[in-house]
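Deviation from plan, reported transparently: zinc ion complex.
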Amino acid sequence: MKCTKCGGKAVISVLQHHLGLCKEHYLEWVPGQVARAIQKYRMFAKTDRILAAVSGGKDSLSLWDILHRLGYQVDGLYICLGIDGGVNYSNESQRLSQQFAAQHGLTLHVVDIPQVYGESIPQIASRTFRGRGAPCSVCGLAKRHEMNRLARDLGYDVLVTGHNLDDEAAVLFSNTLRWAGGFLARQGPVLEADQPGLARKAKPLCRMYERDMTAYALLRGIEYIYDECPYALGATSIYYKELLNKLESDQPGAKLNFYLSFLQAKEGGLFAPQADPDRAQMHPCPSCGQSTTAEGLCSFCRMMGGES
Ligand code: SF4
Ligand SMILES: [Zn+2]
Ligand SMILES: [Zn+2]
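Because the crystal trials were delayed, the predicted structure below was used instead.
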C-alpha cells in the first residue's frame, strides 16, 4: 500500500477515511485531525491555559504531546490512585507521566490521593457502599473531583482528557440503551463550566479511533503503560467496546458515524438541556464549593467523611 499523500510506503491504513499513510504523514495527519476537532467544537484558544489529565496511558500522553506540538500552553495533572497491580500500576503510570514531562520540559502536577486523604482508592472503596464490587465508581468520583479542584484552584481555563472515539461511542451506547436523557444531554466534546465551582472540560481526541491513537503513540516513540488498571477487567464499558468493534469490522466507519450523527442530532435540538432536570437543581457543596445535585455535601465530601 502507498501513502496517499506522498506515494511512499504506507505504514498504516486509516480505513474509516480510506487513507494509507507513511510514518511522516501519519504523524502529521493525527495532530491535524485533533486541531480540526478543537476548532470545530470551539474547545479552546492559543491564549488559554490548559490542564491535561494524564494517566500514563497512550491516549492522555499522546494528547499532551499533540497539544504541545500544536503550540498550546498545556500542563499535565497526574492523580495517583494508590492502585497496586501486577507491576504496581500507580507507580509505573506515574513514572511514565513524569518521564514524559521531563523529556519535553513540561510541568506536571501530581495529586497523591493516599497522601492527601490518607487512603488509597481501593481502601476508600472497601469502606463505602459505592465500592461494593470494583472500586470504579469511587475512583471515577474521586478523579472527577480532584481534576476539577486542581483546574479551578490553579486557575486553568480548561481541563482536557484523553477520551477517544471508542470511549465516547461506548458511553453513548450505554446511555442510549438506557435512554438516559440527562447523560445524553451532557455528553459531548465540550462541557461548559455552567455551574459554580466546575471547570470547563474538553475532549480533543473524541473523533480519534483508539487504534489510531495506539499507532500514534508507537510511531511517535512515546513510552506508555501497556497494562490496564487491574480493576478494568470485566468492565461493562469493555464489553460495549467489543460489540462496537464487531460492528466496525463489518462496517468500517460505523463507530464514527454513530458518534457524529449523535452530535448532529443534538445540535438539531434532540436531547435539549431541559432533558437534564438534575442540572437545574445544582448548588455549591458547602464544604468544597463544587456543584452538586445532592442535598447538603457533595458525594465526594460525603464519601470522604465516611458516609456511604
Ligand atoms: S478501571 Fe481502575 S482506573 Fe479505571 S475507574 Fe476502575 S479503578 Fe479507576
Ligand atoms: Zn507520505
Ligand atoms: Zn464537596
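The longest helix spans residues 23-40. We consider this an acceptable substitute for the interim report.
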